[in-house]
Amino acid sequence: MFKIPFLDLPPLRAAAGTVRLPGSKSISNRVLLLAGLSEGQTLVHDLLDSDDTAVMLASLKQLGCVLEQVEGGPLKVTGIGAKLQTNAAKLFLGNAGTAMRPLTAALALLAATQGGEFELSGVARMHERPIGDLVDALRGLGCEVACLGNEGYPPLRLSGPSELKLSEPVRVRGDVSSQFLTALLLALPLVAEQDIHIDVVGELISKPYIHITLELLKRFGIEVKREGWQRFTIPAGSRYRSPGEIHVEGDASSASYFVALGAIAATGQPIRIEGVGSASLQGDVRFVEAAEAMGAVVRAEANAVEVKRGAWPLRALDLDCNHIPDAAMTLAVMALYADGPSTLRNIASWRVKETDRIVAMATELRKLGAQVEEGPDWLRVHPLRDWQPAAIHTYDDHRVAMCFSLAAFNGLVTASPVPVRILEPQCVAKTFPDYFETLFEVVSARPEDIPVITIDGPTASGKGTLADVVAHELGYIVLDSGALYRATGLAARRAGVELDEAEAVAAIAAKLDLHFAKGRVWLGDEDITDALREEASGLAASQVAAHAPVRAALNQLQLDFRCLPGLVADGRDMGSMVFPDAPLKVFLTASAATRAERRHKQLISKGIPANIAGLREDLEARDARDKGRTASPLQAAADARRLDNSAQTIEESRDLVLSWWAEARPFKGSALSH
Ligand SMILES: O=C(O)C1=C[C@@H](OP(=O)(O)O)[C@@H](O)[C@H](O)C1
Ligand SMILES: C=C(OP(=O)(O)O)C(=O)O
Fold first, then answer.
1. Which of 51, 189, 236, 564 could pair covalently with 440 via S-S, beta carbons 3.0-4.6 A apart?
2. What is the pLDDT of residue 190?
């Protein structure tokens, strides 16, 4: 996950490849609650691991469910068998509607019948999301529900015992959120001594989510009778019966970003999305129909879909989106690539989700330059040709972050492509923590559009540390080019090749089987990270780096590190030779005395004896050799910014480089400006 203040997406050009979706949020949280209320064990396969499921899991644990993660396998949930194990708990439910609403209903009924006091709260936004219709229904049933802040909103206190009135139908409004009806359907089997009727008041929205609820209840042994979308009956004697084992489908709402990606940018091979398909329980699979209407070519299998670009530009769309409220946000960004204005209708529920999504989408689309009109329950987006670089505020809404990543394909419709900045990208953790990593696996950009920051300088100037911290802040990849030379020296010595035999060493460099993973460096199967840090490796690197054929052999390897979302390359000639087009080049220096001191500290801390005067002599000799060599001598690129960090902390150097980077980017104003 990118836990950084902002993530810049360079202009993207194409998409192809396979995506394996994370588990469905809606199914995961329903299954967890049903398994938690059942007697005995349920093995849950492919559960979503995200913020929304984490709060459900933590709550179930507090309520006495036993949760055991089978290593690399399913989660084993031992339920409470509809019997309270504790009669008091304070549960924190973040911003998960699928946890807050169903747990409210379940605990209100359990408190009423078995006694207890439960407090349910969430993040600030959760306390602005309505729950009044569910509270009214529960109070109508005889439950004691107190709104601890504003009436009709969490936090809530549920207490009991109290007498339930189950002979009359339970009435619940369905026009603000379907989750209130879902909550009652999931919880009322707890008290179904007699048939319980639920009557929906007003037009029910988001109906496909009720289908998910009914299907999952069925798998837990409860057959609800449905008359249209108006009346639901839970038969007398209903009891939760664990199916023993259950598989969670991939998330169909999460699939929408990749379906869109296929429609926009898969011009060769399709995007293959695994985990949902035509056999899915989730209503959001019908997003593919909207994408097809816009021109996508879709091939659906039971549990996968493949999507390619068809019509281009996309065809404008006018659609009632009530059945796909979450995935419909994706259409709003696709509309930028259409041949006319697109209108999304019947989306009033957007106003009470993670943020007011109608306002959020309109505001952020306008930042890109788009013309947008909005009404109480609709949004119209016009196609965009004159794109502006924009920092997209994400309002702690995972879907805003995910759908705006699609704006990075603007280079397909304009000759002046712009990067897109996604502020606070970690908000995707609500349902898809690795969204951006997954995206980067299936999209590509032109190398020259992928930003590179080069940090060159003499030995022990702190290049590596500075490169690491700068890359960390930006979510970029690091190229430690020195490691390539060190590894070449090491590999040459192991192969018995003399380090002054330029051509023989170059042949080794060309075949170097080197890879970097999780901060370690591997040569073939061997972890050589520590060996590379030895003084001898540094000296060998300096020797082999003097050979022009070695440098040529390593050049392509270095260029290959220019990967999404960007690169920080440290070395001696990163700015001057390898990445001459880097938009920011830093030449880092420190006095010989400071560098000798740092190297001395480093060695001593590793328990390696060292002498400052000797180290300084070595350093100066190495500087002379690096500067004096004919192949890429150590020198600052003409357009490099010089940074002497002798008297600076690493944080000061990092902040200075980041401020230079901000100047080099097209996003004006502060990083967090909205
Ligand atoms: O029941 C569910 O799993 C959901 C129902 C929908 O909410 P509304 O019924 O409030 O539209 C949807 O937006 C939400 O992400 C998940
Ligand atoms: C509306 C959403 O979430 P919640 O389950 O919190 O309602 C969503 O995921 O888009």
1. 564
2. 98
